[in-house]
Amino acid sequence: MTIALAIHGGAGTIRRAELTPEKDAALREGLKAALEAGHATLRSGGSALDAVEAAVVALEDDPLFNAGRGAVFTLDGTHELDAAVMDGATGQAGAVAGVKLVRNPVRLARRVMEASPHVFLGFEAADAFAREQGLACVPQDYFSTESRWQALLLEKARLAAGGFPEDAPEDRRHGTVGAVALDAMGRLAAATSTGGMTANRPGRIGDTPVIGAGTWADGRCAVSCTGHGESFIRAAAAHDLAARMAYGGLRLEQAAEAVVHGALPGLGGSGGLIAIDAQGNVAMPFNSEGMYRAWVAFQGQPSVAIYGGENGSFSRG
What we know:
Layout lengths: L3 E9 L8 H23 L4 H13 L20 E7 L5 E7 L5 H11 L4 E3 H10 L13 H15 L9 H4 L2 E7 L5 E7 L20 E3 L3 E7 L1 H7 L1 H12 L3 H12 L7 E7 L4 E2 L6 E8 L5 E5 L5 E2 L3
Parallel strand pairs: 3-4
Antiparallel strand pairs: 1-5, 1-11, 2-3, 2-6, 5-6, 7-8, 8-9, 9-10, 10-13, 11-12
């Protein structure tokens, strides 16, 4: 049976000239390490759900990505983290929003799914549940990095000069990590995690933890999105892709392209997504200048890409 995995580390304005060779190499190594964490799980017979959790945990622990350690700051200079998981084999899902203490929000989202009767927990209640479940919790400064702090200062200065929040540069609007997987039993799963948008109002919730907007998995496909969250929510982007396959008969790549290049732009939605189907085909379209991404499918070699023009899908045709 085919196993396959794809991950993303966010989308937005990503230009070769603006990344030093050292930063480019570090980002690719981070993506490669996360891909290997998930792929090793699949190779050892682990479930798709285990694989996407392992990959996203690796990205949450890497300060180069906007999830977990390395999360952006809210307007008040705090960190609020969101995450979701969905098991395509059972239709079960778990999500958390606005957590401030749990080291790996994706682990907490899975606990919500498996150890509570709920789908969605938020803020202090979610952090309290994390402690009840014995998950690792950390002080807020664990998530902080100097580069994210400087980004907050730049965005606050832009807003103070009369700029509008919706006009923020793409690199301050985007930033999410995610994974989708197909395991040897034919099961699909998706997981997504984010630190939000630089200088977003405290309490803001984007698409990442909204099941059907930023995260979705069923028997046909698994989807994880990254981009301007408000637009992805209005488009119900992740579920829209699945619905185009289920009701419109589109192939994975066709459905993904229709969402990213058709539905989202009309709502001001910039960004992209990763998706995988039950045959192991992978699609990774984006309408921004780049998307951090990596994938392995059909017993092929692991691949990593950042910029537009690098390969973005893998299909048997």
